[in-house]
Design goal:
The structure holds 2 protein chains of 2 kinds. By secondary structure, chain A is α/β, with parallel strands linked by helices. Chain A is built from 28 helices and 11 strands. The longest helix of chain A has about 40 residues. The radius of gyration of chain A is 29 Å and the shape is globular. Chain B is mainly alpha-helical. The chains are: A alpha/beta, B mainly alpha.
């Protein structure tokens, strides 16, 4: 049915975070998967535009190709109950997965096709084309070696001895130049540049990123020489170590006011190709990546690298290396399963609508019991060395990352339990505070007075626990303020140091202590010096940005709970109102986050911040800097604005239970925070929502192939697909088919989960 | 039936694109017909 009841549909966003990791020639299977991910988001974007046009009375044409048309039909079929929008908002990649992550992110950010990358993988990712000139063994020697090599091939993979193309290429490959990387890095970089430029021919200035949203991309690189870091100890005074892990971050933001701001545009092709080439620089196969290689590739193509200096300094930390340029190799050596940056990124993303979030990881070679030898023999000399240097590190189990996510989810449950335990008391307190107003005060001013009264009331009622709570807030605030000051002053807290740099008798930790002292006030009570908690609270109010962010995020979680409440689920008007309400709260969170950004401050504040680089900053200087920061932050004005948003938001809900619940979350937050913040600090967990994980692999999609598919590229130590075009086509096609099956299942699961309350609402 | 349509879209698109795998594409088509004829 072609629905026209857009306004009557429940709106839901399915937010996807993607993790793509190593697998050498299994990159081609992963590429097939990314094609479908792109098609799905393109279909969802087109449907959203189509519905918006229809709401405005405009009939627009939908131009989609291939499977995107059918994804469009599927998403449309969820109406009139559900308007499901799919948004990929964070991608993390390492090694072969890193290349695909970069290209997918670029396609999403600028609504570009990936077909040129398909051609690259299918036509060019072959040993014949990747390999350097073969000048190793002579023709005569090759003839002599051929029978021996053929016998050895039997041990290399099930299909290898029987496939002429693979056998011939492998024989030539083995007898080519030894002890130098067989593949040409420059050629590979050049192809990546070509494919990126070919994509840009389709650039119409569009994006698949929704308004107000951001797409983040993380790529892991291994810095071969590493950068020197200094860590303070008690004895010795410090130690130094080399840090080889580099996580490169690119992002694209689609601002409502100023359009797309992207680090994935044509201007950034050299940066992106550098990252793609470096992260997939498998040791022994490709030479290490360097800026010199990129310069050569660009020069031959007559291209410029306008952002070279910034990339070198900010991303590659070239300024830390006094002895030469930085060299990069395969990112999977330092982080093969790059979940960590993705989890940090997705946790605090704004979502104006009701959101279902999934973290999807792509595992082209999942563990199978078939892989376990039934009668394992002790490894020989070379096998032990090779396994410990390459095979085992590259195949480290995914279990650690998944256990970490389980730990995060466990912490989320614990924090929720703390909030639930406090709720009855908080509810009573909020009712008491609002008693004289009935339910909601009549004016915004009165509402602000009640909110501030709750802060004082929470402090008084929490008794001696409040001293610890305030101290924790002070410590946290001091750390954040010092981070800001260090950024403003241009001296990074955890920056790299140059070899042989002098030991400085000053550290940001010492400044942090002075900041805590500057914010701590005492008063005489019963002949004893006591902390003046009211005064400390007052100081916190002028600077504690994170308290307010916690408060708003907590409030948004309370609002999310009410989407499923029958009062809201039965009313399109109320559901839309919650969407708008949340959007405004996210706007406030963005305003608050800005206060931690150095761009927010002017030259005067920056000048003051540099004064704290003294070995022993004076208390008065610190107080002066804090005073200026407090003035610039203007948090009391933001508080008024937040009060106004909440007052109006709750007011529109009238007598609904949701209004009461949301008020409890906002007015009652000082009580909740007194209980929750110490637990959050102790668990080092500030998430309020669980992370749900899904996998796409050849073993998970079994509709067309019961038992799953054996990828051809898995042979020859995962180099298999580089030796045979047919094998590449096989893996690529199954990548697309497997992804389609898994994505459709995911969409249907989300639809089924939401269908209960949606169908209830469609009746209302 | 949407999944069937998606599978067929992919196979149609790749039919003219893949050089060495006409047989695989046809085998997948047959499998799609078989699976979905059972009312999957």
């Amino acid at each position: 049915m072609k629905e026209n009841l857009v306004c009557g549909m429940r709106q839901l966003e399915l937010r996807l975070g993607l993790v793509l990791y190593g697998g050498v020639s299994l990159a081609i299977y992963m590429h097939g998967v990314t094609r479908e991910l792109l098609n799905l988001q393109r279909a969802s974007h087109a449907l959203h535009q189509f519905r918006r046009d229809r709401e405005r009375g405009v009939e627009s044409d939908v131009e989609l190709e291939g499977s995107a048309k059918s994804y469009f039909d599927l998403l449309e079929s969820f109406g009139p109950q559900l308007d499901l929008r799919v948004v990929i908002d964070a991608i993390s990649g390492a090694s072969a997965g890193g290349v695909n992550a970069i290209m997918l992110a670029r396609a999403l950010a600028h609504d570009l096709p990936l077909k040129h990358h398909s051609d690259l993988w299918l036509s060019l990712a072959d040993v014949d084309k990747l390999a350097n000139e073969t000048s190793g063994v002579s023709k005569h020697a090759k003839r002599v070696l051929a029978p021996i090599l053929d016998k050895l091939l039997v041990f290399l993979g099930t299909d290898v001895p029987h496939n002429k193309e693979t056998r011939t290429k492998l024989r030539d490959f083995i007898s080519s130049r030894w002890f130098t990387p067989p593949f040409s890095g420059e050629r590979y970089s050049g192809w990546l540049v070509d494919a990126c430029r070919a994509m840009d021919e389709y650039d119409r200035g569009e994006t698949l990123i929704p308004f107000g949203q951001r797409l983040e991309l993380f790529v892991t690189l291994t810095d071969f020489h590493g950068v020197l870091r200094r860590i303070a100890l008690h004895d010795p005074e410090f130690i130094e170590e080399l840090d080889h892990r580099r996580i490169v971050n690119f992002n694209a933001i689609h601002r409502v006011s100023s359009g797309l701001h992207s680090q994935m545009s044509a201007e950034f092709i050299p940066d992106l190709v550098f990252a793609a080439r470096a992260t997939s620089s498998f040791p022994g196969a490709f030479p290490p990546m360097s800026a010199a290689e990129m310069d050569g590739v660009l020069e031959r193509q007559g291209l410029e690298w306008s952002g070279r200096e910034a990339f070198m300094k900010n991303v590659l930390h070239a300024n830390c290396d006094a002895e030469g340029e930085r060299i990069f190799i395969d990112g999977s050596l330092v982080m093969n399963k790059p979940f960590e940056p993705l989890i940090e990124s997705i946790a605090q993303r704004p979502a104006a609508r009701e959101v279902v979030r999934r973290l999807l990881y792509l595992d082209p070679l999942p563990f199978s019991h078939r892989d376990v030898p039934t009668d394992p023999e002790p490894p020989g000399f070379f096998k032990s060395i090779f396994a410990s240097l390459a095979h085992i590190p590259r195949n480290e189990p995914i279990g650690d990352e998944l256990q970490e996510i389980e730990q995060i989810n466990m912490k989320v449950r614990r924090i929720q339990e703390v909030a639930d335990a406090a709720l009855p008391m908080v509810r009573r307190e909020v009712q008491r505070l609002l008693e004289k107003h009935g339910s909601l005060p009549e004016t915004e001013g009165d509402f602000s007075v009640v909110r501030q009264g709750a802060e004082l009331s929470a402090m008084e009622q929490s008794g001696f626990a409040n001293a610890g709570y305030l101290q924790l807030r002070l410590g946290h605030l001091a750390h954040r303020v010092v981070s800001l000051i260090s950024n403003l002053s241009g001296v990074q807290q955890e920056g790299c140091v140059e070899k042989g740099a002098e030991v400085v008798q000053w550290s940001w930790e010492s400044v942090e202590e002075v900041v805590v002292n500057a914010l701590t006030f005492s008063k005489e009570e019963d002949g004893e010096a006591q902390r003046d908690q009211a005064k400390i609270l007052n100081e916190l109010k002028s600077l504690d940005v994170d308290y307010r962010i916690r408060q708003l995020r907590f409030l948004i979680e309370q609002i999310n709970k009410f989407y499923h409440h029958e009062e809201i689920a039965g009313s399109v008007e109320f559901a839309r109102h919650l969407d708008v309400f949340k959007r405004e709260l996210y706007g406030q969170i963005a305003n608050l986050r800005n206060r931690w950004s150095e761009e927010f401050y002017g030259t005067e504040t920056i000048h003051l911040a540099t004064l704290l680089k003294e070995p022993s900053p004076q208390l008065e200087t610190v107080r002066k800097v804090l005073g200026v920061l407090s003035l610039r932050m203007g948090l009391s004005d933001l508080d008024k604005l937040t009060d106004s948003i909440v007052f109006e938001g709750v007011g529109k809900l009238g007598d609904l239970k949701a209004a009461q619940g949301i008020l409890e979350g906002y007015i009652g937050f000082p009580f909740f925070d007194t209980s929750m913040f110490p637990v959050q600090q102790a668990l080092d967990a500030f998430e309020l929502r669980k992370i749900e994980v899904g996998r796409i692999s050849p073993k998970d999609a079994q509709l067309l192939s019961p038992g799953g598919i054996d990828l051809k590229g898995a042979q020859l130590q995962m180099f298999g697909a580089f030796f045979n075009r047919g094998w590449r086509e096989h893996d690529y096609l199954w990548g697309r088919l497997n992804a389609a099956e898994r994505l459709v299942r995911l969409l249907r699961d989300v639809y089924q989960q939401c269908h209960g309350s949606a169908s209830h609402r469609s009746g209302g | 039936m949407n999944l069937r349509a998606i599978f067929l879209d992919i196979l149609e698109e790749e039919e003219g694109h893949l050089e060495d795998h006409a047989e695989l594409v046809q085998a997948c088509r047959d499998k799609v017909d078989e699976v979905f004829s059972k009312g999957c």
